[in-house]
Amino acid sequence: MSSASTPNWHTAWLLEQAEVVAAYLKIPTGHVSSSDAYIIMVVPEACVLSAIVYVVLRILVRIVTQTTRWVVVAVRTRQIPSVPYEENYGNDDPLSMLMGFLDRTVVVPLLGQALILARGCPWEHMYRWVTDKSLVKCRVLHRTGIIVGDPKGLKRVFQTGYKLYDKDLDFSYGPFLPILGTGLVTANGKHWQKQRLLMAPALRIDMLDDILPIAKKAADRLAVKLKEVKSAKVAVDIEEEFRLLTLQVIGEAILSLGPDECDDVFPSLYLPVMEESNKRVLAPWRYVYPLETFKYNARVHKLDSFIKSIIRQRRKERKEQGDGYQKKDVLDTILDSVDREQITWNAAAETQLCYEIKTFLLAGHETSAAMLTWTVYELARGDSKALERVRQEARKNIGTPLRREEVEKMEWTLSCLKESLRKYSVVPVVTRDLNKDDELCGEKLPRGSWIICHLQRVHHLYKDPLEWKPDRFMPGGEYESFSDDIRPYMFVPFIQGPRNCLGQYFALIEARVVLGSLCEAFSFSLVDPKTQGVTHPTVIPVGPVGGMHVYVD
Prior knowledge:
Layout: H1 8-24, H2 34-40, H3 44-76, H4 94-111, H5 114-118, H6 122-130, E1 135-140, E2 143-148, H7 151-160, E3 165-167, H8 177-180, H9 189-199, H10 208-229, E4 236-237, H11 238-255, H12 259-265, H13 270-282, H14 290-321, H15 330-340, H16 347-381, H17 384-397, H18 404-407, H19 411-424, E5 429-434, E6 438-440, E7 443-445, E8 450-454, H20 455-459, H21 478-481, H22 504-521, E9 524-526, E10 549-552
Parallel strand pairs: 2-8
Antiparallel strand pairs: 1-2, 3-5, 4-10, 5-8, 6-7, 9-10
Helix pairs in contact: 1-2, 10-11, 10-22, 11-12, 11-16, 13-14, 14-16, 16-19, 16-22, 17-19, 17-22
């Protein structure tokens, strides 16, 4: 068959497929001619065969690559202490003894600690394993993980060697990629550096002035709802209220969305996607549930379409109004950066910005809502003096108009929020992939090592770690007693170093306004103090099991 007898669309399609194969084989793009394409794929039947061969080859290459990686890591980390076998059955009856024997002789050798981690809370198991050790090694199926529970180790991963430790996109972040894509949270290397520079102006310190009135309006709207049930002994799930509130704040701050629009869109699209993504981390078989997968993909598509429509409309308004356009929000600040950097605007750029917006949504509300929930819980169950100090700061510093300089004086309120982040470690672990041989806590680690940074363990290296003591973060408190070289790594809810959370100041100033405003107007009491406050064993950010139901007084 000659090329002349083949329709142009067919030639173009062949060229496209050949470019894919060429890229996979490391052949420079643009170097594949139509004759090369026909060499690869001569007839339609051969095209199908080539596609099948290509997919099979990719699978085989990945299997070989991953097998080699994990064998090398397992062999070269054998000097690191392994997780000891744990017999958790607790009874001496024959069945328990048999189960323990099978675990010890069959399950653990084949599956590592996978089943143990599946029983209960994974990071609580890891917490127990890494106690009194800087590093400990575990295995989850074929993956060898190195658990780090030492602030000096975190300093190496987050600060001094951060370029060596990439985000773990295969395991921990994999289920969230439909939301995060190649945004700041998951980007690595040069792409991360480019996106960080592009996004940084959107959340610089002076931009926080715009957040204050948005947060105050959201707190006032919630106060109106709470007044309706005040003193009526009607339970309110304050966790759910905070989730909606923080979504309203981030929706208005980033996209200028009204509260009703946020409540209409995000609870029906964004929150179910996040819930399913969380489930897939520890239950990967959910990927093949047809109904759930269909609903999940449909929601992601609708969410993407919604955000992209806002981006397109905003770019249209900016173009039409020219120099007379008045900047509205974070999206405008990002688009200013895009124009300043002269980034070519196309479908890829639009998709990338959509990922960044969704990243802001995730980072901008989940941690904030959990932080506020746990702080209200502690104030409701604790000493009334702590609540009164929050109120005093609110009366003194939350005025009209709101001023950032005044809100930043709310040191006690900030200490309460920080102590909740420390005690409950709403993000208990983060994972990294080592891209080059390195030494961590005195141990040599090979390229490809899977690093599990146990933030909760470090947060519990304080005195009486399970006690809620906001004084730790007040001037002269326990936090300041740590040596200068490790102090920043003794409190890492927002990570530290170059890859720290851009939105941490946003979250903390928003939370001071919301908590202060609500505590000034209300008192909260727990519906069932004996059973409430149990941390969720499988969802990150960590919230309470069953929500946080309170009475409002």
